[in-house]
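Chapter summary example.
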Amino acid sequence: MRPVLLDTSLYISALRRRDVSVLSLRRLGADSPLWLSAVVLEELYAGTSAEDRHLIERLEREFDKLGRILLPALSDWAETGRLLSRLGAKYGYEEIGRGRLTNDALIAMSARRQGITVITANERDYGRLAEFRPFQWRLAVV
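The structure predicted for these 142 residues follows.
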């Protein structure tokens, strides 16, 4: 099975429920190693309270120790720009909120490059991104 990474939406949902078990996952199945996107990590730090910061720091340390933090490459940034341009041309730049979609597109393009499946609760945005640049993603129910 393919490696997977969880989108920020799933970590945030778990933190809101005070379910810290998701922060200790290493695999989603026997053959599905779990990765952490550096973009997700940034979003978690930006949106986490001081009270929960230690949980995110632990998450970072554990994935770093495993060598499973996915960093966007130059090609991912360029592909993200092209993708957002095409999306904006179809849906209107104001409608898509390019700034809001930039992080999701970076996550998707870097995961695509590495053959990693993105698991998210954000069907609308990831569905739109996949419409223009196919990548593996699955919807999780939270």
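To summarize the output: Strands lie at 4-6, 27-29, 32-37, 69-70, 117-120, 137-139.
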